[in-house]
């Protein structure tokens, strides 16, 4: 099964994609599943999970904490806390898994620094984010996950339908998401394409 594990919807605030359109596009590009990980809310994932679709939906959220952004997968309720360790506890209380996205992307001011203290409470690391335009940033994340024997995730970080499916993982079942023995697929967007999207968003 091919999953894109980092997609935003209109509920993120910096994106206009409707959950229904995400699922239609995901099916069109050959994905079997998606994780909708809106900023600080599970609304997009919950809405998508209620839509009749062949595409598997993992409800998640990319939550901004006092240490940076952390993704929770397999959520069913909002998490309003902001303390990093309280957020990781809240994710686990829902039976979810904890992931650090884009940990080495120097252009993300809200990234979590993967210190020993942080990694002790994290299940997996995002080792390929298609919006990390410097390839070495993803490579460094993958090396860290491999050295630590941690789970790995990957995703497009899509804010536009054209980005959906740019990267992700191949697993036998949704239960394998977040494991260390997943196959990673895809790549990063070009600097030109990324810049065009940023400019378009400012002036649209």
Describe the structure.
By secondary structure, the chain is of the alpha/beta class. The protein has one domain (2-203): TIM Barrel (Alpha-Beta Barrel), CATH 3.20.20.140. Helix content is 28%, strand content 25%. The protein is built from six helices and nine strands; from the N terminus they run E-H-E-H-E-E-H-E-H-E-H-E-E-E-H. The protein has helices at residues 19-28, 43-49, 84-93, 116-119, 135-148, 191-203; strands at residues 2-7, 33-39, 56-65, 68-73, 97-100, 124-129, 151-155, 167-170, 183-186. It has a nine-stranded mixed β-sheet. Strand 5 (97-100), helix 4 (116-119) and strand 6 form a beta-alpha-beta unit. The longest helix is centred in the C-terminal third of the chain and has 14 residues, at 135-148. It is globular, with a radius of gyration of 15 Å. Mean pLDDT is 93; it is low at 194-204.
Instruction: Please identify, by name, the CATH architecture.
Output: Alpha-Beta Barrel
> How large is the count of helical segments?
6
Helix residue percentage: 25-40%
Beta strand %: 25-35%
Class from helix and strand fractions: alpha/beta
**SSE order, one letter for each helix or strand:** EHEHEEHEHEHEEEH
Number of strand segments: 9
| Name of the top-level CATH class | Alpha Beta
**Biggest β-sheet: count, sense, barrel?**
9 strands, mixed
CATH superfamily: Metal-dependent hydrolases
Assembly state: single chain
Physical arrangement of strands within the biggest beta sheet: 7-6-5-4-3-2-1-8-9
In whole angstroms, the N-to-C terminal distance is: 36 Å
The name of the CATH topology is TIM Barrel
Please state the average pLDDT score.
93
Q: Give the C-alpha Rg.
A: 15 Å
What spatial form do the alpha-carbon principal axes imply? Answer: globular
Q: Could you say how many structural domains there are in total?
A: 1
């Amino acid at each position: 099964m091919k999953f894109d594990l980092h997609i935003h919807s209109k509920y993120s605030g910096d994106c206009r994609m409707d959950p229904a359109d995400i699922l239609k596009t995901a099916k069109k590009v050959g994905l079997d599943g998606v994780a909708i990980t809106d900023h600080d809310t599970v609304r997009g994932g919950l809405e998508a999970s209620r839509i009749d679709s062949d595409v598997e939906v993992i409800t998640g959220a990319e939550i901004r904490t006092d240490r940076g952004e952390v993704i929770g997968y397999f959520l069913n309720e909002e998490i309003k806390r902001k303390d990093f360790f309280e957020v990781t506890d809240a994710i686990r209380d829902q039976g979810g898994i904890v992931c650090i996205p884009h940990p080495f992307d120097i252009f993300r001011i809200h990234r979590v620094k993967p210190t020993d203290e942080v990694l002790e409470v994290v299940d997996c690391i995002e080792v390929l984010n298609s919006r990390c335009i410097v390839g070495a940033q993803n490579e460094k994340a993958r090396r860290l996950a491999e050295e630590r024997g941690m789970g790995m995730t990957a995703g497009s970080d899509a804010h536009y339908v054209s980005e959906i499916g740019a990267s992700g993982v191949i697993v036998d079942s949704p239960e394998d998401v977040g494991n260390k023995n997943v196959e990673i697929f895809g790549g990063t967007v070009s600097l030109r394409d990324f810049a065009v999207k940023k400019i378009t968003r400012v002036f649209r």
